[in-house]
Queue: 2 jobs
Job 1
Amino acid sequence: MTGWTIEDMPPLRDQTVVVTGANSGLGLEGSKAFARRGATVVMACRSVERGESAAKEIRDAVPNATLDVRECDLADLSNVASFADGLRADYDAVDILCNNAGVMAIPRSETADGFETQFGVNHLGHFALTGHLLDLLGAADSESRIVTQSSGAHEMGEIDFDDLQRERSYGKWSAYGQSKLANLLFAYELQRRLGNHGWDDVLSVACHPGYADTDLQFRGPREMGSTLRTAAMGVANAVFAQSAEQGALPMLYAATAEDVIGGEYVGPGGLFDMRGSPEFQQSNDASQDEETAEQLWAVSTDLTGVEYDFERT
């Protein structure tokens, strides 16, 4: 995969791709790339207004883009369920689901369902969404893929089952690390369960973008009201980060490349895995712990009320 770029993506005509957080950053660049290859892109966005603005930007670059902007607020499980219901009503199948949206290092807050926001949005929202869309993914004519966006920050994460919502002790970065570790535990456990139930035509793959220049880094400083930290983040992004277009490559590779198998982890292969062309990588030992993954799955099922139905109809 040395030097792999967007130009190496296969044609995606007649395929339906769902991208969460499609209105900015990696989601926007990924949606644009999928549209260039002919896919119908469902842009799942918390704000339809911002989603429509992003869709206009994509159509300016890809005049024949087929885009469908829909509201999907991962911080509200009832909204996630409504989004999935609407998708099932209008589509017969989903070929690629990119669990991309996320929040990073923000002051403690809670979702509509009372979950700590980083864990609730980054993990639980996507856990619920994937479960709701499993039947559509299984209905694809050819192999379908579920791509879950993690981060190198998973290495500083720890799943604290005694305080998952960080009510007793909250650190914005430790909470983010927990959510990104949860993304990997989920992606790998989902692949195991798909394989165990004979869903060989549906793959679960994980990825991370390295350090990409997106709006993700600015939300925390803004919510803290820190002009200084916002400015410092802007300088850091300008000096050290790769572009959002480059940061989207691992997700795009995981979603479309022919040599990808279930359970892979794709990230940029340059300096400190922060930038560069996508490559297969190894996440840390904690992310590979099957006992923790099974416990997290059970807890996630209880918290979201979403049961995965692996029976094929």
Job 2
Amino acid sequence: MSDAVQSVTIVEVGPRDGFQSVGPFIPTPHKIALIGRLHAAGLRRMETTSFVSPSALPQMADAAEIVAATDRLAGLDAQVLVPTARHAERAFAAGATHLSAVLSVSERHNMGNVRRTPMESVADYAQMVAMMPAGAAMRLNLATAFDCPHVGRIGADAVLALLDPLVAATADVEIALCDTTGRADPAQVRALFAAARDRFPEVRGWAFHGHDTYGLGAANVLAAWDVGIRVFDASVAGLGGCPFAPGATGNVATEDLVWMFDHMGVASGIDLDRLVDAARAVAELPGAQIGGRVRDALAARARKAAA
């Protein structure tokens, strides 16, 4: 198959990973409107919200309302993040049909997030798998798969060892290896995905969740693409930030990936002009920490053309 007819799936995580980094509460109707603009730009997979403790993360307190609203968007595959089986129950009760479970390879990071060891989270994940109703889908996010803010670089052996019991729970899952800190490099990304796919050929699909903290977000995406990964998370306007590198940007920007793949002749199904318009609206959110380069480059080109 030639590059001209290849396609990529971009999962928009701004409404979850991006919005949760914004301090001031974003009014629910405004969130829904922004999700609608992203949908109108052609995005058909989004991580729209997360079911977590409202006291721990007030920005996500309207998760049930978001699920109800996004269910009305035609053709949208809306996944919701759930860190534990208890929150998975809440998500299913609200009508969610695509869960996005998360646990960390790093014990220290996992303890900080959910007060469990990784193996305790594996057991909790197995409970989520067991409670899934017919027709529901599962996505597994493996955080700190490349680097941990507390202990540094994570070895491939640790990732593969944790994947053993997770894949045993179900292979009918999409597994995202996550560069939580943005400190991964293309060689590391390429090697880990190659090793994981070789060891677990039965897994339904693989994805990459990258951050752009050190400017390697798009490069790491391309490294994963080179070894056959075709699903990538990204956040509109690079919304997200990184708490471990104050002042640095967070998630790789959706518009940067769309621009890159468009110029590679890889179809994303996303209208870049509409996406950039949505990104500009997102960039205006009070308290938003944004990133990305394409949005500013296109604006500069437009100013020059107008002059």
